[in-house]
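Support request from a user on the community tier.

User writes: "When I paste my C-alpha cells into the form, the page sometimes reloads and wipes my input. The last time it worked, I copied everything first. Here is what I submitted, just in case something in the input itself triggers the reload:"
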C-alpha cells in the first residue's frame, strides 16, 4: 500500500464515529510527511543537485532538443521528458544526471533545471 492509500485509509478511519483521537493525529502526521516529500521532490526538480552542478554542451542544443524543451515548457507537458532524454542522447549527451532526471518519474514542474538549461533560462 502506497503512502497516498495509507493516508486515505487512516483519514477514512479517523472520520468515522469510532475513530480514536490518535488516528486523527496519525493522519496529520502522514499528511505532513507526504507534503514534505512532495516539496523536496519539486525542489530537486527545479534546482537539481547543488553539489554536482551540470553544464550543457552547446552541441546538445539541436533544433529538435530545443523544440522539445520549448514544447514541454510552454504546454507543461512533462510526460515528454523521456523523449527529451532520447533527443539529448541522440545529440551526444552523455550526462547521467541529465538523462536520469529526464527519464525519472518526477514530479516535474515548470522551472525544471534540465528544461531551463536547454532553453538558456538559467
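"...and here is what came back when it finally went through:"
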Amino acid at each position: 500500500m502506497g503512502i497516498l492509500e495509507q493516508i486515505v485509509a487512516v483519514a477514512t478511519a479517523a472520520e468515522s464515529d469510532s475513530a480514536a483521537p490518535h488516528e486523527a493525529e496519525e493522519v496529520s502526521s502522514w499528511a505532513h510527511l507526504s507534503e514534505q516529500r512532495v516539496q523536496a521532490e519539486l525542489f530537486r526538480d527545479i534546482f537539481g543537485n547543488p553539489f554536482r552542478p551540470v553544464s550543457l554542451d552547446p552541441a546538445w542544443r539541436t533544433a529538435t532538443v530545443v523544440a522539445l524543451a520549448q514544447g514541454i515548457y510552454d504546454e507543461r507537458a512533462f510526460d515528454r521528458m523521456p523523449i527529451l532524454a532520447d533527443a539529448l542522447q541522440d545529440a551526444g549527451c552523455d550526462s547521467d544526471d541529465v538523462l536520469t532526471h529526464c527519464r525519472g518519474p518526477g514530479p516535474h514542474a515548470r522551472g525544471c533545471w534540465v528544461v531551463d538549461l536547454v532553453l538558456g533560462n538559467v
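Agent notes: The reload is a front-end session timeout and is unrelated to the input. Residues 55 and 117 are 8 Å apart (CA to CA). The two ends are 39 Å apart (CA to CA). Escalated to web team.
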